[in-house]
Write a structure and sequence with these properties.
The protein has 183 residues and is α/β, with parallel strands linked by helices. It has one domain: Lambda Exonuclease, Chain A, CATH 3.90.320.10. The chain contains seven helices and eight strands, in the order βααααβββββαββαα. The strands form two sheets. A five-stranded mixed beta sheet has the order 2-5-6-7-8, covered by helices on one side. Strands 1-4-3 form a three-stranded mixed beta sheet, with helices on one face. The longest helix has 16 residues. The termini are far apart. It binds iron/sulfur cluster.
C-alpha cells in the first residue's frame, strides 16, 4: 500500500464516497469550477493560518505539514500549541460537528504523535464566534472505529452501486460532474 490519502478527504468520504473518486478525477482542474461558496469561505478562513500570520508566539506552530506512515495519511494541521500540547482545527462556522470532522482531527493527532509531538487535548475553534469547542481524545474503542473506517475507505470501489441521496447531491460541489445522478 504505497498511496497516501489526504486528511481532508476523510470528511468528504463520509459525505459521499463517490465524491472522493470525482475529486481525484477532477483535482487538476481549476478548483473554482467545482468548489461552492461555503468551501471557498472555509478555505479563506484557513488563509491566515496557512500564511502563518495568526500568531507570533514561539510555542504556537501553524500550518505544519504532517503525515503518518502507519495510516498512510498526509495533510496539514491548523494550530498546535506546544505549551499546552493542544491540537486545534479552525472552522469558520460549526453549527454541528460531523463524525468526519472528528476523524480529521484524530487523523491529524495520529500524524503529529507519529512525528514525535505530544498531544494531550483537541479542540475546534469557531472563527465566527471566537469560541473553542473541546473534543475528547480518542479512546481505544474510538481508535478501532477509526481504523475500521480507514479500511473501508481504502477498499472502496467507485463502481459499487449506491443509493443516491438527492438532498446531499443538491449540496454537493461535484453535482455538475457526477454520473450517479439524474436531475
Ligand atoms: S452528486 Fe451526489 S452521488 Fe455524486 S458525488 Fe455528489 S453526493 Fe455523491
Amino acid at each position: 500500500m504505497d498511496e497516501y490519502m489526504t486528511i481532508t478527504s476523510l470528511n468528504d468520504f463520509i459525505f459521499c464516497p463517490y465524491s472522493i473518486y470525482l475529486h481525484n478525477v477532477y483535482m487538476d482542474t481549476d478548483e473554482d469550477n467545482y468548489k461552492a461558496s461555503p468551501q471557498i469561505r472555509g478555505k479563506y478562513a484557513h488563509e491566515a493560518t496557512d500564511k502563518k500570520t495568526s500568531s507570533t508566539r514561539a510555542y504556537i506552530i501553524l500550518s505544519l505539514p504532517v503525515y503518518s506512515e502507519k495510516y498512510h495519511l498526509m495533510g496539514k494541521i491548523d494550530v498546535y500549541n506546544a505549551k499546552d500540547k493542544k491540537l486545534i482545527e479552525r472552522k469558520y462556522k460549526l453549527k454541528q460537528i460531523f463524525r468526519g470532522q472528528i476523524y480529521q482531527l484524530w487523523a491529524q493527532m495520529f500524524c503529529l504523535k507519529e512525528m514525535g509531538y505530544e498531544v494531550e487535548s483537541l479542540a475546534f475553534y469557531e472563527i465566527s464566534t471566537k469560541k473553542f469547542i473541546d473534543v475528547a481524545m480518542p479512546t481505544e474503542q474510538n481508535i478501532i472505529e477509526f481504523e475500521d473506517f480507514m479500511e473501508y475507505v481504502r477498499n472502496y470501489d467507485p463502481s459499487t452501486p449506491m443509493d443516491v441521496n438527492k438532498n446531499k447531491c443538491s449540496n454537493c460541489i461535484y453535482s455538475n460532474l457526477c454520473d450517479k445522478i439524474e436531475f
